[in-house]
Design brief:
Elements lengths: L1 E5 L2 E5 L7 H8 L18 E4 L2 E4 L12 E3 L7 H12 L9 H14 L5 H8 L9 H16 L1
Parallel strand pairs: 1-5
Antiparallel strand pairs: 1-2, 3-4, 3-5
Pfam family, one: Fer2_2
Protein name: (2Fe-2S)-binding protein
Organism: Shinella lacus
């Protein structure tokens, strides 16, 4: 049995310890905001926060998160999350929307570490989050807008 915290609530999983965290979140916990994209940690659609850091849940065996704190798009909160979500909506960042939960999770983690990121810092933090609709310019602008909103 693996016990962990998911969006602030204690959870236990008694299935196969090699089950990827993504499938525990989606199939067993019924939280579908975290998406399956590639299955090999290359697209970022499955990004969650694991103990405060971004993690690709599609390649994270559930056995490796014993005692950890997992936050999904459904549980993200705080000033950075609010600023990012407001900026995302204000700039109409999503087109198809499939990648957006992973994009938002990475953007929130960036602002938690670097409150006023440069273009290079944004590009570095968002590398590995693929947007098939190519809204990268709006994603970068939204992160800047969120950082500005948090300042004041």
């Amino acid at each position: 049995m693996v016990t962990f915290t998911l969006n602030g609530k204690q959870r236990s999983f008694t299935g196969d310890p090699d089950t990827p965290l993504l499938w525990v979140i989606r199939d067993f916990e019924k939280l579908t905001g975290t998406k399956y994209g590639c299955g090999v940690a290359q697209c970022g659609a499955c990004t969650v926060h694991l103990d405060g850091m971004t993690r690709r849940s599609c390649i994270t065996p559930i056995a490796t998160i014993e005692g950890s704190d997992v936050v999904t798009i459904e549980g993200i909160s705080g000033k950075e999350a609010e600023a990012i979500q407001t900026a995302w909506a204000g700039l109409d960042v999503p087109q198809c929307g499939y990648c957006q939960s992973g994009q938002i999770m990475s953007a929130v983690a960036l602002l938690q570490m670097v409150p006023k990121p440069s273009d290079d810092e944004i590009d570095g933090a968002m590398t590995g989050n693929i947007c098939r609709c190519a809204t990268y310019h709006r994603i970068r602008a939204a992160i800047h807008n969120a950082a500005d909103a948090m300042e004041g």
